[in-house]
Amino acid sequence: MNVLFYAIEDLPGERLQRVIEAIIPLEKIERCRSINSLALRLRQPLTDPSVAVLLTSTPNELIEIMPYRELLKDFRIVLILPDRNPATVAMGHLLRPRFVSHIDGEYLDIAAVLIKMIVKLNSTENETKTSNDWR
Fold first, then answer.
1. What's the start-to-end Cα distance of the chain, in Å?
2. CA 95, CA 127: separation in Å to the nearest integer?
3. Spatial separation of the C-alpha atoms in residues 65 and 114, rounded to whole Å
């Protein structure tokens, strides 16, 4: 499993990066620090099942990601929203995330979700390998 991690360089982004790095090997994490770098990465093909962890610091940043939601459709999205405003939450759900959290959290919920995704993806990969061995 590869993780595409989007966050600008700020304290919440650095805190979340440390959480992700505690769970995912560094070589499996790709960090994008701007909307432009995210857009460039999303235009590249996926090689493995991938997770996108998107931390949006402001509602405007979330709005800037919206044009790329079609490119995000093949990712399992973990979305961190900038606030709890109902309009922001509704907009965030347009990205079809698997999990939604908020920037003011401790990110322990995100760690638990990532661990669960890893376990599920690894068991799916093992089942596929085993079923292919029978062919």
1. 25
2. 29
3. 21
Instruction: Report the CATH number at residue 108.
Output: 3.40.50.2300
Whole-structure pTM value = 0.88
State how many domains the chain has: 1
> Can you say whether residue 56 is alpha, beta or left, with left for phi > 0 and alpha for psi between -120 and 50 degrees?
beta
Print the domain residue range for 104: 2-133
11: confidence class by pLDDT, cuts 50, 70, 90: confident
- Give φ, ψ of 129 to 5 degrees: -60, -40
135: its two tokens: 């062919």
pLDDT tens digits, 26-46:
999 999 999 999 999 999 887
**pLDDT per residue as tens digits for the range 120-133:** 877 766 665 555 55
Q: Decide: helix, strand or coil at residue 130.
A: helix
What CA–CA distance (Å, rounded) separates 77 from 63?
Answer: 16
Residue 85: φ, ψ to 5°: -60, 130
